[in-house]
Amino acid sequence: MTRRQRGLLDRNLAIEMVRVTEAAAMSAGRVLGWDDKELADQLAVDAMRQALDAVDVDGEVVIGEGEKDQAPMLYIGEPIGTGDGPAVDVAVDPIEGTTLVAHGMPGAVSVITAAEKGSMLRTHIAYMNKIVVGSDARGSIDITKTPAWNLHSIGRAMKRPTSDLTVVVLDRPRHKDLLREIRGTGARLRLIPHGDVLGTIMAALDEFPDVQVLMGIGGATEGVVGACAVKALGGDMQAQFWPRDEGEEEILRQEGFSPGQVLTLDDLCRSEDISLALTGISDSDLVHGVQYGPARVRTHSLAMRSRSRSLRWITTLHDVARLREVGRYHAPSEEDILRAAQRPT
After folding, report:
1. Which 3 state secondary structure label does DSSP give 234?
2. What is the CA angle 122-170-219, rounded to 5?
3. What per-residue string of b and e applies to 23-53 under the rule 16 or more CB within 10 Å gives b?
4. How many CA atoms lie within 13 A of 280 on its CB side?
5. What does R_g of the chain's alpha carbons equal in angstroms?
6. What interhelical angle do 147-158 and 176-184 show, nearest 10?
7. CA 322 to CA 328: how far, in whole Å?
């Protein structure tokens, strides 16, 4: 084992990364309900970039929401961190649920995950079909089989009737047939408007009683981030790329994949030492949203690490004035926000 690898294994990066997602969440939360996804993205990304500059890692963004010429998003291949410390792959989603932030809806979070260099799947394909379960149903899923087959298999593994399972699915027209088949098994449904990282975590978290399975097509970024969470929780996941046209099928082939190829949890992230941090922007079932007081800002975060399978819910009160003095507060001032909102479109 190299010294750089030991540096990763000896540190709980999830705790350090909480500061990064806190910064992004505090910035984006300032414009909750403003009906401006681009402004929220800009604020979250700027704050996340500044906070990442202080983390002692030699990191590279391998899964992000944008390319270099599509600012403000953190782009694939972007170096992050101080350059000192362990070499890591980083998957980022400064705002998981930009529409939720724009409309002032619940369920928006900021999330980041890190693992050893070269361990995360890299792709430019936008979407994946996914199935996720917790540790009680590990080994019972097969994405090449029907939803009904999978739900009956999951029920047997969990020793509960199919009618006692709840499946979380993104509420999209493309899932019409999937929803009909799930209902045909007697299983319950929980439809969510956005944010399948949270849905993935809920399905994989054995202590979360309301959801046992995630199914359906969602973002590839969220798929890799979600896979890191599933591995940290000891659950199981399979995925398949969902190319939207012949152009994306060609991209798949160039990347060394094939349409219909099954991606296991290890294909998505083969690391055994994953750190993930998530901070609420608006309220959700897992974390509260940012709360702004006259002197302090309250954030609520979840930090998890696959090596120990530890979960830490962290509530932090941030003294904004003091953090500004010491250069550790990356959220914008009211004047900064108003100037950004008045930018040319």
Report:
1. coil
2. 15
3. bbbbbbbbbbeeebbebbbbbbbbbbbbbbe
4. 25
5. 20
6. 40
7. 9
- Closest residue by Cα to residue 91 from 143, 47, 52: 52
Residue 312 corresponds to which tokens in the numbers above? 């830490």
User: Sign of torsion, CA 82 83 85 90?
Assistant: positive
The size of the chain, in residues, is 345
**pTM of full prediction above 0.70:** yes
The C-alpha angle 16, 21, 25, rounded to 5 degrees, equals 150
Token couple for 221: 């970024």
pLDDT digits (tens, 9 = 90+) for 65-124: 655 444 456 888 899 999 988 999 999 999 999 999 999 999 999 999 999 999 999 888
Distance separating alpha carbons of residues 32 and 113, to the nearest angstrom = 24
Cα separation of 48 and 331, whole Å? 9
Token reading at 108? 């928006």
- pLDDT tens-digit map of 236-267: 999 999 999 988 999 999 999 988 899 999 99
